[in-house]
Amino acid sequence: MSRTVVITGATGNIGAKLRRHFTALGWTLRLLDVTARGDAAVTEADLSVWDEGWVAQMAGADAVILLAGDPSPAASWESVQRLNLDLPMNVYEAAARGGAKRVIFASSNWTMAGWRFQPGALLTDRAPWPVNAYGASKLVGERMGRSYVERWGLSVVCFRIGYCQRGENLPGAHMGWGDWGQAMWLSDRDLCDGFEKAVTAPAELRFAVLNLMSDNPGMRWDIESTKRAIGYAPQDGHAAEITPDGARDAGVTERTRALIDSAEAWLSTTRG
Questions:
Q1: At what angle do helices 87-97 and 133-152 cross, to 10 degrees?
Q2: Best CA proximity match to 133, nearest among 78, 173, 182, 62
Q3: pLDDT at 218 over 70
Q4: Residue 73's pLDDT band (boundaries 50, 70, 90)?
Q5: 7-37, pLDDT tens digit by residue?
Q6: Which of 21, 31, 54, 230 satisfies CB 3.0 to 4.6 Å to 197 for a cystine?
Q7: Is the sign of the CA dihedral 35, 38, 39, 42 positive or negative?
Q8: pLDDT tier at 269 (50, 70, 90 boundaries)?
Q9: Catalytic residue among 92, 134, 148, 163
């Protein structure tokens, strides 16, 4: 069955990969980005500024994929305010007004980064713990989605996306953040499967926050709920390769976190 899908951030890493995949499926695509990079098929639009020209692209879409925004974990609050708060609000509003059936929001593993050195499985109903402006903005984007489900009747799927590199996207010790980064690896094939399944999931799926990683052995990220909710069927996985440098860096960071936790515990007793 053919679908009409809007991809915002269409010229970026994930947008380009999804575009190729959806085109191969024969779907109708409406492509938006702040810069077309010379691609005549892409409509240039600054989605952080409301404009009826790009808003019209949302009309009647089966799904709007909300990738646009500042993708950097080091993003400043100034950038986050415009690109990761104002922009998603505009897209949600435009999708709702235009009668789009579903919005698929690119959230992030950074919503849970504070749990890195704490025990336990990373289920999406566990308390969020962003550690930077970027992670906080993605959490707000999820909550915006829930609001539009409850007040406008949209269907919204929020993916806490793992580690999907530009280009060849091969896993291994070259990836950042040691075993934590490798455990979040998301292959291009699994990325596309997840988004395809989110587009085609039954209309009864109203709201879901789901982890989107490959089936990596030993990872703490729960993807069973993703499989149940949308029929996600990951085909790839990677066991983390721990190098001496990676183990040393992880040890330093873990000890730092322990010191911070101790300091916070001491402060809470002195305040009491």
A1: 20
A2: 78
A3: yes
A4: very high
A5: 999 999 999 999 999 999 999 999 999 999 9
A6: 230
A7: positive
A8: low
A9: 134
Mean pLDDT estimate for the chain: 93
Q: Contact at 8 Å (CB) between 15 and 33?
A: yes
**So what's the pLDDT on residue 243?**
72
User: Active site includes 134?
Assistant: yes
**Distances, alpha carbon 243 to alpha carbons 98, 175, 182, in Å:** 51, 11, 12
What one-letter code names the amino acid at 168? Answer: E
Beta partners for residue 234, in sequence order: none
CB atoms within 10 A of CB 244: 7
Superfamily of domain 4-241: NAD(P)-binding Rossmann-like Domain (3.40.50.720)
The pairs formed by 83-91 with CB atoms below 8 angstroms and a separation of 24 or more are 83/48, 84/134, 84/137, 84/138, 84/140, 84/141, 85/137, 85/140, 85/141, 86/48, 87/47, 87/48, 88/141, 88/144, 89/144, 90/47, 90/48, 90/49, 90/50, 91/8, 91/47, 91/58, 91/64, 91/66
- Whether 267 shows a pLDDT value over 90: the answer reads no
**Rounded Cα distance, 188 and 4, in Å:** 21
The reply to whether the predicted model has a pTM over 0.85 is yes
In terms of Cα–Cα distance, which of 131, 217, 142, 155 is closest to 182? 217
